[in-house]
Amino acid sequence: ADAGPADKSAIGSGDAMVGAIAHAYNQGMSHEEVAKFAVAMGTASAKLPGTQMASMKEAYEVYETIKVYTM
User: What separation in angstroms does the CA of 13 have from each of 8, 28, 32, 33?
Assistant: First the structure.
């Protein structure tokens, strides 16, 4: 179940993003995929209470909703 607004915390979301970047590059993802995965992990982690880091499943659920536009 999704945590209520008062229970959500962005603490640690930046750390989750950095970890996601390292993981994504290690997996050979493209620059676009790395950016999407990092944003997805940070976003998914921010939806959780305290300093919990999102699971891969939670991150990929967010990943699938991210659109990248070129400028």
Answer: 11, 22, 19, 18
C-alpha to C-alpha distance for 56 and 59, rounded to whole angstroms? 5
pLDDT for 15-64, tens place per residue? 999 999 999 999 999 999 999 999 999 999 999 998 888 999 999 999 99
Exposure of 59 by Cβ count < 10 A (0-12 exposed, 13-18 middle, 19+ buried)?
buried
Of the chain, the end-to-end C-alpha distance in Å amounts to 37
Q: What is the pTM for the complete model shown?
A: 0.83
How far is CA 26 from each of CA 29, 30, 52, 65, rounded to the nearest angstrom? Answer: 8, 11, 23, 23
